[in-house]
Amino acid sequence: MESVHAVELKGITKRFGSNTANDNIDLYVDRGVIMALLGENGSGKTTLMNMLAGIYLPDEGRIFVGGKEVTISSPKDAFDNHIGMIHQHFRLVDVFTAAENVVLGLDEPGRLDIKAASAKVKEISERYGFEIDPDKKIYDMSVSEKQTVEIIKVLYRGADILILDEPTAVLTPQEIERLFKVMKAMRADGKVIIIITHKLNEVMEVSDVVAVLRKGKHIKTVRTAETDPKELTELMVGRKVELNIDRKTPVDPKPRLTIAGLTVKDGEGVKKLDDVGFIAYGGEILGVAGIAGSGQKELLEAIAGLRRIEEGSIIYSPEGKAPQQIVGKSAMEIKDAGVAMAFVPEDRLGMGLVGGMGMTGNMLLRTWNKGKGIFVDRRAPEKLASDVMESLEVVTPGIYYPVRKLSGGNVQKVLVGREIASAPSVLMTAYAVRGLDINTSYTIYNLMCQQKDKGVAVIFVGEDLDVLLELCDRILVLCGGKVSGIVDARTATKEQVGILMTSVGGKGGKADA
Amino acid sequence: MHEKTPLIRLSKREDMPKARVWMIRLGAFIFALLIGMLVFAVAGADPIEAYVTIFKAALGKTTGIRQVVRNAIPLLGTALALAPCFRMRYWNIGAEGQITMGAIAASFFAVHCRNMASLPLLLIMGVGSMVLGGIWSLIPALFKSRWRTNETLFTLMMNYIAIGIAAWLIGGPWEGKPGSQIMPVFSSNAVLPKVLGIQCGWIIVLVLTVVIFVYMRYTKHGYEVQVLGESENTARYAGMNVPKIIMRTAVLSGAICGLVGFLIASGTHGTLYSNVAGGAGFTGITVCWLAQLNPFAMIVIALLLGVLTKGSSTLQTSMAIPASITDIITGIILLCMLGCEFFINYRMHFRENHAKEAK
């Protein structure tokens, strides 16, 4: 008689249209185990877990919880089976307190006793080492605190099986440390924890077993202690990969963008950038680090002329031409002067690309206004589209195939390829590798390095500190719209950057610019 | 264990073969005609005979075909006018009012330039109708691009104002016999000439079909409209002047609607009524969507609706079936045609009966 697993999936298949997200997956987890679900974006990790959480129904296959077969067709069913999922996007009511959010939606008989709920939230916090004030409103909380509320919400409902979807994506290194401690405390309490991730160092640090998914299939489950990052990468990608970034020492860097006292407000009059100043040099990669929403997006948009600037100056000094002030110029003028932005916002297709058009139509975005007459010239963009398709190995049925239907990596290649093709002297990218597989990510990193070697000033807004430290020459850290420091990427440590991310003018905040 | 699985589940599907798409659409049309038979039967008429009468009346005689084309002209014109707006995701549902304003402008010149030669008079009427229709459409667009007002409600409300103005004019300043509340017919120099027995508006809308097709597909303006419709942020990123594009497209749309108003007033009625647009401004929306913004498909849809309208008036006289019955059938056809898009975009999964399989 085989032992009973806490959760077991048998032959799970889920299709979306012609796309098979999960293909005949068999998987199990035991009590008191932290399992990492590892795979590249689009490998079906979240889809699989959503079927445990009652968001999707499997097309085929069976789910067993504690040895008993169950059907989970709603989040309530999931809770009835003691399964709780913490999603990437939080589902909290901003104007409620932590305790109110925790009891929200519970259908308990009698009057709502918020005091008792508060006490229970406290008790759960103490048991696992959370730091949370049950009476604090959500809108006063940091991202990490909100995540804590989500975890408590799930525990309060009696979950023994916790699924965390990319929980570290929004956290600083110190907060990640704290989260892992809590996860280990929960493991000691006999809970099952499944953490969805694509970061290898986290897998190695926190998990007991690793299940690797690739293109919707379960490739292998290995014990963390018996594997190493290299093997995991190969399992994840499906072949041997060489991953290195060719970072050269900048040759004769000259100031390209000199920014001083830059202040930008959002629609509600809240300062998004506060007295930001730095110099970006031609021939170097300047990384921009910070917690999500610290002003990265606003900074790039301000430089590109897409945002109203309250105060400050941006002096642009192109090669062999007189420096010019670009504050007050239109987006079109700035672009024509050679400042390119391959901006990848939260929604990849929201800015920079037109999802319903093919590669040609998207190449046209840069040149649609060129040429005389009322008709658009499609010949040049057609050629450019073919060139980009070839040089960056874009996988598409054709240059007229809507880019919306391409995979994330290919969409990004189209965007970055177009911006680089315009021969910019400043190249700005934000989250350029978000959602890309490892290989494509490194293709993009090396494209950035090539641009830098050509003397372009590259500004690279990134999320992954390891990558920032490996790729950039200097890293500018933003915190709450202010520059909290600029560090040398070759000598700085992850912890140093992490501290700067949460403290304005913290230690080591002496700008060397 | 499967008692909790929903009976029907939906999932999105992609890239259905073109032939199959058209099969589904044809199927939906036939399905609608079958339901229509039921409606005729309930109304106490022989369904087969009713359909035969409709198609005979519409397509059996030259006069019938002429009437069909006459009916189709405003529908096609309006659908063409709306296509750029809808491509931009600017929901102009004010075509009815823009048509009315166009008709008013045409009538103004018909009344006040009675003694001009026919050709220059018609030209002035045409241009005047486009200008007034364009201005009428510019007002909500101006508010939209300046203060981000909702164009849907705004354009809708503008309809009632336009119709009110027309009603006041024909009952007041332009009234014929005192107390008649009717405007006298235009003098003959203000009436559009006929080509092949139909007012020459059909040539104008056919030319317009090609023009709009080229405009949307090959011009810079067309490209701007398409980008803006997909994402305003991308349009700004590409350096496009968003307010200008919104206003320009709205004016174009209103101008074409105004021209349609001129075609109806001068070509069809030879006078101004307060309901001169006669619902074409709304039916045009349906034509536009059924054709999925494709100008050439609009010709087919507009003609189909023209057939049904012509057929219904004949049914009323020859079989004593109220015209409203045909309106119901038209409604059923439109509903089925729009509804079948659902089956093109989604796949349905029925709950499988495992108990049966086990036996």
Helix content of chain A: 25-40%
- Counted up, domains of chain A total 3
How many strands, which pairing sense, and closed or not: the largest β-sheet of chain A?
6 strands, mixed
Could you estimate the helical fraction of the residues of chain B in percent?
over 70%
What strand line-up does the widest sheet of chain A have? 6-7-8-3-9-10
The beta-strand count of chain A equals: 20
Give the CA-based shape of chain A.
Answer: globular
Read across the widest sheet of chain B, the strand sequence of neighbours is 1-4
> Separation of termini of chain A?
68 Å
Q: Give me the secondary-structure category of chain A.
A: alpha/beta
Q: Please provide the count of β strands of chain B.
A: 4
Total number of helices of chain B: 14
CATH-derived architecture of the largest domain in chain A? 3-Layer(aba) Sandwich
Structural class of the secondary structure composition of chain B? mainly alpha
Mean pLDDT of chain A: 84
Question: Would you give an account of this structure?
Answer:
The complex is a heterodimer of chains A (513) and B (359). Chain A is of the alpha/beta class and 513 residues long. Chain A has 3 domains: 7-237, Rossmann fold; 242-338 and 424-513, Rossmann fold (3-Layer(aba) Sandwich), CATH 3.40.50; 348-423, no CATH class. Chain A is built from 16 helices and 20 strands. Chain A has a 6-stranded mixed sheet with strand order 6-7-8-3-9-10, with helices on both faces. A 6-stranded mixed sheet of chain A has the order 16-17-18-13-19-20, sandwiched between helices. Chain A has a 4-stranded antiparallel sheet with strand order 2-1-4-5, with helices on one face. In chain A, helix 14 (438-453) links the parallel strand 17 (426-430) and strand 18 (457-461). In chain A, 46% of the residues are buried. Residues 506-513 of chain A have low confidence and may be disordered. With 359 residues, chain B is mostly helical. Chain B has a domain at 76-297. Helix content of chain B is 72%, strand content 4%. Chains A and B meet through helix 10 and helix 11 of A and strand 1, helix 8 and helix 9 of B.
